[in-house]
């Protein structure tokens, strides 16, 4: 298991299947209850509502991802290191501890 430190954008905890989204047209492969990782893209309302948690490699506590997470009461960690992308893939199970801004890869 590897853990990565980011910034808590909305407190809470979640565990689930990771769905990585690089572009706006890639949301269709995400499923209800996924932990959504946004890479250089903004979430749409439907994806936020179906997600268990929101993650972002870029952005801070005032980013679109962070605001959407707070408005929808979803745990969220933003500002994850680029290195995180080298250690995860779609379908991996991750644990989100947004209270401390930590994401752990369980796969």
Compact summary:
With 107 residues, the chain is an alpha/beta fold.
DSSP helical segment count: 3
Instruction: Indicate the structural class.
Output: alpha/beta
The outline comes out as: globular
Low-confidence stretches: none
Number of strands: 8
Query: What is the straight-line distance between the termini?
Result: 7 Å
Mean pLDDT: 92
Tell me about the biggest sheet?
Answer: 8 strands, mixed
Helix content: 10-25%
Order of helices and strands: EEEEHEHEHEE
Spatial sequence of strands, sheet with the most strands: 1-8-7-3-4-5-6-2
Percent in strands: 25-35%
| Gyration radius, in Å | 12 Å
Oligomer: single chain
Polypeptide structure, described:
- This protein is an alpha/beta fold and 107 residues long.
- The chain is 17% helix and 35% strand.
- The protein contains three helices and eight strands, in the order ββββαβαβαββ.
- It has an eight-stranded mixed beta sheet.
- α1 links the parallel β4 and β5 (53-56).
- 38% of the residues are buried.
Topology:
Layout: E1 2-5, E2 7-10, E3 13-21, E4 35-38, H1 45-50, E5 53-56, H2 64-71, E6 76-78, H3 84-87, E7 93-97, E8 102-105
Parallel strand pairs: 3-4, 4-5, 5-6
Antiparallel strand pairs: 1-8, 2-6, 3-7, 7-8
């Amino acid at each position: 298991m590897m853990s990565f430190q980011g910034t808590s954008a909305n407190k809470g905890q979640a565990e689930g299947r990771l769905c990585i989204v690089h572009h706006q047209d890639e949301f269709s492969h995400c499923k209800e209850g996924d932990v959504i990782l946004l890479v250089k893209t903004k979430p749409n309302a439907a994806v936020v509502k179906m997600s268990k948690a929101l993650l972002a490699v870029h952005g801070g506590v005032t980013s679109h991802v962070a605001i959407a997470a707070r408005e929808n009461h979803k745990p969220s960690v933003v500002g994850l290191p680029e290195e995180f992308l080298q250690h995860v893939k779609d379908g991996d199970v991750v644990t989100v501890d947004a209270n401390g801004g930590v994401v752990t890869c369980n796969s």
